[in-house]
Write a structure and sequence with these properties.
single chain; about 210 residues; alpha/beta; Dihydrofolate Reductase, subunit A; 9-stranded mixed beta sheet; two-stranded antiparallel ribbon; 6 helices; 11 strands; about 30% strand; NADP
Length: about 210
């Protein structure tokens, strides 16, 4: 059994990759391809960490599985290739006032507040991650429920048109690498990494 920080709904974390000027996208897509970052995103958002306090033994006999939830805006949802959506082994929640669900494989809510409130008290949801896009990140980072911000910092300029919101250093501070590893529940490469001609680094900010 894994022991985690006390971190469960309604609190949530943001996870994103951003370049030198905090750009996160062009034409509703990532302008870079970093395989290790893609794998990292999948590991982090899938990993279920269960504390003694959060364990619900009734789940073991009911056949229900515990999973994380990923909340995203409509454009982020549509940017995921159809063959990869919904994202596997996570509850996919899409924020939209017009999108209609094509099946029961994902949930739609009209606002972030509504989505988060709907997940509170569900024993099958371990953690909530906000995964984009820009407007959803901005709303989420300003929420008192945002506890952690996981950023893959890409040390290159891609002239993006969509940006990650400014991180208020009066509210958030850079966490240590050990704190990041503890939060993620897996080993995380430390310091700057290189893939092709791109340098990047896995970082985490925490609420003070």
């Amino acid at each position: 059994m894994y022991i985690m920080f006390l971190f469960k709904p309604p609190k949530f974390a943001l996870i994103a990759a951003a370049e030198e000027n905090w750009g996160i996208g062009i034409n509703n897509a990532l302008p870079w391809k970093i395989k290790e970052d893609t794998a990292y995103f999948e590991r982090v958002t899938k990993k279920v960490l269960v504390s003694d306090e959060a364990t619900d033994t009734s789940l073991a006999t009911s056949g229900k599985s515990v999973q994380n939830a990923v909340i995203m805006g409509r454009k982020t949802w549509e940017s995921i290739p159809p063959k990869f959506r919904p994202l596997k082994d996570r509850l996919n929640v899409v924020l939209s006032k017009s999108l209609k669900p094509e099946s029961d494989t994902y949930v739609i809510h009209s606002s972030l507040d509504e989505a988060v409130a709907n997940l509170v008290g569900k024993p099958t949801i371990a953690r909530i991650f906000i995964i984009g896009g820009g407007c959803v990140y901005k709303e989420a980072i300003e929420s008192p429920l945002c506890e952690y911000i996981l950023i893959t910092k890409v040390y290159k300029n891609f002239n993006c048109e969509t940006f990650f919101p400014k991180i208020d250093e009066n509210i958030y501070e850079l966490a240590s690498h050990d704190e990041l590893v503890n939060f993620v529940g897996n080993d995380v490469p430390k310091g700057r990494q290189v893939e092709g001609d791109i340098e990047y680094e896995f970082l985490m900010y925490k609420r003070k």
